[in-house]
Amino acid sequence: MERWRRYVPALLAGLLILALAGNVAAGVAADPRHDFTEEGGQPAVGGTGYAIVELVDPPAASYTGGIGKLKATKPAPGKKLDANSRDVQAYVQYLRDRHEQIKAAMRSAAPKARVVREFFLTGNALVVELNGHNPGQLAGIRGVKRVSESWLYRPAMNVSAGLTGAGALWTKLGDGQMDQGRARAGEGIKVGVIDSGIDRTHPFFRCKDYDGDGDVDEQDIPSKVYASGVAGDPSQVLVSDHGTHVAGTIAGCVTTLQQGPVRDTLSGIAPAARLYDYNVFPGFGAGWVAYGGSAFSHDIAAALEDAVRDGMDVVNMSLGGGVQGPHDYLAEAVNAAVDAGVVVVVAAGNSGPGDMTVESPGSAARAITVGATTNAHYIGIPVSAGGRDFGAATGDFSPFGRVTSPYALARDGSARPEEACYPLVNGAEVRGKIALVKRGSCTFTTKVRNAEAAGATGVLIINNVAGDPVAPGSDGTAPAPTIPAAMVSMADGQFLIDLLAADPQATVTIDGTVETEIRTGSGDILAGFSSRGPTPYTYLIKPDVTAPGVNIYSSVFDGQWAMFQGTSMATPHVAGAAALLLQLHPGWSPADVKSALVNTAARVVKDPVKAMYDPGVLARGGGRIDLTRHATPLTLDPVSVSFGYFNGNAPVRGRQDITLHNVSSSTQTCTVTVVRDAADPAVTVSAEQVTLAAGATATLTVSMEGGRSDRLPSGDYDGELVLDCGGKVMRAPWWLRVNREAKP
Questions:
Q1: Could you read off the pLDDT of 287-296 as tens digits, one per residue?
Q2: Which parts of the sequence belong to the Peptidase S8/S53 domain (predicted)?
């Protein structure tokens, strides 16, 4: 029996627990679309008590030689780090010896400090429980490069799989038969899920019973748990909804649902991929919540190091937090994991739509960082008014029955009166009616509670961005509202407002007894919550790409199903896509996979407010992934060109090299064109045509010259490089920012 869970708020990637940069937090708070129920983080009181002590030598994943007779351990492109190889073991022993020297010095400098974890593969560092010592006491030890605090992070498909173009690869894998290819999609690829655990007993994972014993157990989906300094036994409550939902999107088995609101055959993007469970949020949302459902960055880094050691091909990280300076440890660990030959896919975060809201470790240069776009369906109920039929998305508030009722537009007396974030001032109009309220500024629970206090019999929330409505989720605070609530689209909400203005006696009919999947075709609109670039401190173009992350239907804990939304939900679409590409092209490097996804992405993403407009490179990166275009002859590294930030009267110029790799089996001749506006700084390339033999690489230099920043208007300048190889087109965004008012 399939069970459908009615609640849907899963805006979890990038739930910062400590501190966002001040300007980022202010930008988020000021935006009326940032109204989600649980994601804005608060600064913690005091420190976490843990420090990450980085040493001067590179980790094994990044070591290129030069220390005595120790051979390089960084793998060649297309190869993975073998943690058990003789060369890696020798270099790790060298690092261990250095660690022992640091520990000896620590006993003098900080006698109460205790080493609780050590990294050698994706980082060269010790994790230290400070026990009252100041991190500065460790920074002066010879051989220490940097000391930083360990921060706290939180966890940030039927129709959505179609939007990604996965069917094209399924068909290719099945030699023209999509169903056959779908069943074996991802075969032989290991995908690590660093999240809140996977419910192995869920029917969506029944095909993972590799040993045929009738149970999907530890031998089928191996799991590890990470929970530093937690009292009690986190293994007693291992898994929860978030990780189970993410894993289902990546590699859920081909499953036909015959009950509940969605009755269809669905699967993850790579149903045959091998899943590995790295649980850094044990018990998240399931009654046992360590540090408010958070994980230390060093626990996440430990999971990533284990994933490299265990030979993962792809790692999914639907999580995030604030960027901790230009040398963020977790971001650097992600970069090292990519050096080790692992494709690492990370959520951009849910702190949009403000500028520079991309979170760590999505800020890592080598990660594939994913923003969220709308899907093309939702779970809802029929609504009609004024001769128009439409739908309303249902969440976890009380359900509507079958009702025809007058309605009124709520007003609370504030600057945004229709958002109902404060007690209503038009109770006489609302009493006994369904209240219309607009999304924005406060939680859905606050809106419904205020409407109920004014005597409303139900609430229809009007979405404040284009596209489909989303399920309104409760924030769990008491007293919980008792009246029903659902959400209508911005267009349908405006229709109700206009109808009411023309006829104050207008009524609306809602049939809450018929909950079903409503397919709309309203995909590819950027989610308002999706974090935007550039990255803080480093000014990189992020996110790299987008994928469906709104109204995503997948598995949740205890055999149930639910629709969630967030960049957490977009990320596993890309991780699954990466698994398919590696299955088709086993010799590809992480850079090849990233380019094949980013530089062939579809430029179809629309702005959430002005739906006819492109939201820009800092919002959508290369675009929405499109696996129908996967057969790229060339890959690019890096996938985009960020010239950075220029202020005052600084010279506006820069250059960046891009490595072109011919991944096809034949010689390729490609033209290179720069797309820019006439008023933009001059952007040129070192060659307007390149010819590469099969397997060969070449360097393309991209140069920018714009004079002095005090002579250019302040603002962002962007365009793209277009490489056309006989009709196969790759596009690489370029970008820079000028602030002529700021001092250098």
A1: 434 444 678 9
A2: 186-603
